[in-house]
Protein 1
Amino acid sequence: MRCSKIGVVIVAGGLSSRMKDFKPLLSIGKRSMIETTINNFRSVGADEIVVVTGYRANDIEGRLNNSNIKFVRNENYEFTQMFDSVCIGLKELKQRVSMIFVTPADSPFVQKFTLKKMIKEMGNSDLKALQPSYKNMNGHPLLLSSDAVGEILNHDGTNGLHGVIDKFKDSYVNLSFVDPGIILDADTPEDYLKLIEYNENKDIPDVELCLKIQDYFNVPGNVREHSIKVAMTAVGICGHLLKKGVVLDRKIIVAASMLHDIAKGIHDHSKVGALRLLDMGYDRVSEIVRTHMKLEYIPEIITEKEVVYLADKMVQRITPVSIEDRFAAKEEFYKHDEDILSNIEEKKKLTVNLYNKIFNN
């Protein structure tokens, strides 16, 4: 029976010469670079994580002392390449796991969605290597099958890891994602500042990224048009509330409006869409998408969630409609089913009350 464990090799033994500082221990938010990277892989259930150290090995090992991490050292880090450190890590995990992620320590923001999709693709195929890309640029992490490890360890080092991967041919696949974290690392001080900036804004996708997410999930044209119209309507509601002194986050409202139907056509599409966005790291957007079909209650103070919900009910396809007209078709269709009709009437009543709270009070 094939082992189903997932391993990770994190290479953290270099001199960080271009950075002019020690990359693995640079701060990203509340954690260091390497701690953030480790947490990413733990979020998808990685069974064994090996960190290959070299330069300032004691500092890394001391920082991660209580993290249940296996450390191995590249004692010749000054005179060897990254490929040599990768091989040291692979030897430690050889025959103990079925697939191994390989990544540098300074690639901390790859989405959980990306990692899960890579694991699923590898598990359902005979691939030896799988690499993610964003905007046609390959990035991290690389995912290797256990079958690939022997060939890599026997490689003479020419062109490093890419040299042996080139030999895999049809056993290598590149997967495209809507995940900027794939191509972000910290080779230079400028790169590090970009990581800091990305970390502060990564929770809410901008309009360009929302459009790419729609593309990725093959959202039909009519659903896209509806989503754009909902976003515009929601922005209008924001403007009205602002006059009443209610200040909301328009960026999150626009994102949630544009993405609320990314799973349209799938059963329980609000839940499916919300789970997709949650795995992509958009927690707040995910929660709004989850509730866009049905609100549990109207809060005393209106939030972004209620604005997106109401905007969706004020748009039929791409046409502005009254609340009455928005529910009329469903009321007619289910008029002989008392239970369903009762739920529709309850939802309609809540929607009318929300509309009145925003526009009439």
Protein 2
Amino acid sequence: MKKTTLLIAMLLATGCKDNQSATVSEKPTEAAPATQADIPSIHRQLACLPKSAAFVAAHRGTSKKANLAENSGSSLKKLIKEGIMFAEIDVAGLSDGTHILFHDGVWDEKSTGKGTVASTSWGKAQNFLLKDTDGDFSADRPIKLDDVLALSKDQLYLEVDFKSSAKYKTVIQMIRDADMSDQVILISYNIKQARRLAKLAPEMMLSVGAKSEGDIADLKSAGVKLENMAVWLGKGPYDQGYIAYLDENSIPVLAWPRERDRKKSWGPATVAVTDYALQKKPIEGLSRSDKVNYETCLNK
């Protein structure tokens, strides 16, 4: 696994969405120049990205055609080694309160396990083998969320998708205990969920589904801080007028552009999700002329 210093060096070598701030509910801190023990907060990282570029995010924490299981320790380690900085992960809760990474509600399709994930104890789940994205068995077993947080600390930004079995309060406290509050985006799918997450984790960024300025206003009324919003726009099409509004308000865009349209999406998207992260550069669309500004912004 590469050291974090190498990760950041690679970042800067490859080359600010302007005016986003890093406001949190606790004492705000200015990110120092990145070191092995200190990478930029997710607010700063997203704010410093040039408009023409987009971070690559690994869907389900993996990359297809790489013989890796989704939501697995081996896959996350590979992403870190290759310099990918963003991973979307799925968090599920087990019957004994243990939280792990797993997407499906049942074990059958993606592992050697059988039955419902939520009714399984960790003592049983840790014996299952995960299948890779080609359907073949891997050497990976389910991984606990606390181990994922320890692995990702100062190395990987996480988009956290709560499965129905996950307990919001437990997961949020685990993130705080791991000192990872400024390295995550919590995913919400509706205003009710966004309101609850904003109340439980006022210092963390939220992915919100907002298709219009009116939706943004509704989210603000629901208690979601403007500076903590990241708008999910999916596969598009992307309305340029709305994109301009989001840019003016320093709201980053999370998108999942179609492979044939990825180059067109580097401008609208701040973070572009993909199933093929290891076949991409960690940052897409980053020109050489933007490198100096990007480095300067990160090190302010």
Protein 3
Amino acid sequence: MPVEPALAPPRALGEPLGEGRLRLEPEDFLVEEMLGFEPAGAGEHVLLKVRKRAANTLWVARELARLAGCRPVDVGYAGLKDRHAVAVQWFTVPRRGRAAAQWPGAGAEGFEVLAAHVHARKLPRGALAGNRFRIRVRGLEPRIETLDARLRAIRTRGVPNYFGPQRFGRHGSNLRDLPEDPGALRGGERGFVLSAARSVVFNAVLAERVRQGCWETLQPGDRAILDGRGSHFAVEALDETLRQRAERLEIHPTGPLWGRGTPGTAGAVLELETRVAGGYSRACALIEAAGMDPQRRSLRLAVRELHAHLEPGAVVFGFDLTRGAFATAVLREVCAFADQEEIST
């Protein structure tokens, strides 16, 4: 099974402007969760804004459970954030163990509670509007005119919405020796392997559309998705309204998150997706045997509030992404990296 779409898919906006290094210090990679909703102000939970440095999300959740006097399973969080970074993310704990006013300033080495609000329910996975990034790439020293031109292209066109290499494990380890029976996957590895299998099929479809130059444009037979939303609809024929909405990055073409049943596309788009997925028959069979239903994911990622400035021997990037998107998808359209294993969301 080819792994290039997982680890080194084709770029869409040109050759890298140079090579850089990420996360030489945790402060080189800052990410802040954007909730997209206000605390309820009433209820049986406390919504905590936590800053962590060089700390694992699951470890922080266990420490919060200890401070709250609850079970780790009672702690809610919207998503995992990389250990080798500084992250501001949200958690919930049951209110019964500690009043909201007692939480700010609580913590341990590696994390601190910045704010606390009474809230109605446990925070579920995925309950984010997006993430805000501030990333320092060391060793990258492009000409400012060239960098500005690339940033303009990204603002105008977006970038291919690839899953990042960390989805596939070190050197693609989550894709090695895929079993035929999902029952052979042990506990914690099941989710990682199934996710990697699904993601490599998506990346392969997106890579083919990048090669064909149609990753950012709607085609008859596509399913289009609203920017930052989960709802999608069939594109039976193109018209000027759809074309203009796509140019404004309001809607995007989608690719398959493989599952039982048909991908939902038609015509030449369905043929492309079926043909590419045929090269990943073992991954597709595993996904189907696990009972996963087909879904769609945007092929294009709109990059909001994108800016950059030069420092001696480095470039600092800032941008906002919708939930589920990878910062790598943005950065790789600007530069290459000396060690891809250092790249994270």
Protein 4
Amino acid sequence: MKKKLSWGDALMLMLLAAVTAGSIAFLMSYQNFNSRLANLKIKETQYAKFDQVIENVRQHFVGDYDDKALMDGAMKGYIDALGDKWSHYLTPEENALVQEDFKNQYAGVGMKASLEPKTNIMIVTDVYVGSPAEKAGIRKLDEILKINGKSIALDNEEIVNEMRGKAGTTVELEWKRADSKQTFKAKLVRENVTVQAVKSEMLGGSVGLVTISNFDDGVDKQFKKEVNSLIKSGAKALIFDVRFNSGGSTSSMIPALDMLLPKVKVFSMRDKSGQGQDYMSDASEIKLPMAVIVNQYSISAAEYFAAVLQEYGKADIVGTKTTGKCYAQELINLPDGSGIYLSTKKFLTPKGVNLAETGVTPDYKIDISDEEMERFSMLTKAQDVQLQKAYSVVVSKIS
């Protein structure tokens, strides 16, 4: 016979449960409080040191200084000390210009330059047709030496800040031809520039060539338009040239890949805690022989674009090993208009490959000589050995 609990026993059990739950909640709150208190003490110590530095400067520094410039410098130093070459603090002025860049529309001299990871030299990676930079004689792979007569420790943000400005204003540049001692100097007048990041043309043998200079905002629409135009013109094979492509956003790269792939996983991204998202393409795909041309200046989204097509066997990769970047950056806007361009996620290929440092290894490794690299922007298609190899690869697969 089962024994029933009396009202007194039941009440006692409920009281014990309440006391236990309350004790656990109190213990957790106490531990959380202690943890926050410890963090607060650490922050107080750090900020006290910072306050001491500021106070000593105010009391003892004999020169003139600007408080805002000092704070911007402190923020830059803080982010730079992360040791991540892809993360940067942006002043309000720099932040505004970078956001213009993401839209592929700005007022400037009509060229792109990127920090060469191995040498920390700013190298011109693209010069737009009809731009002030082209008219001045600037070419791909030229090295930027001075801006407005001043030699500066260049990084991407400084280049953007100095090159951009209001249409009609001038900027003086001094640059060096790659692998030579020849230098040039000119005053360039800034103009409103709309970047045509995707260009296409038909080659002989029914092969379509698509050149993509970046994957910034709007490139997915340009990509779709140019690819469809080539197919409508009778293209039976496609070559995608992402050499000197400076990367961009997943919102442009993923739709571009979606056009080319069946229903598969296209992209994987993970945050600091390991949480993330996988992106799928739809079932519609373009079924043509494809090749992607890459080089050591293919960065981020550009090398990922090549890696995914390589993994799924959709395209052969031709050229030289890519940069090897695996972090995705987020532009975090701050209340005063400044921002932090911060590496907040890691991305992996569908097969889980991290491209960090290794980059994409071509199926056909084709080097370009130093002389050819020096005058790359002036090479004819017949002289471009990487393009010629990509061409022969896809032509051999046209049925």
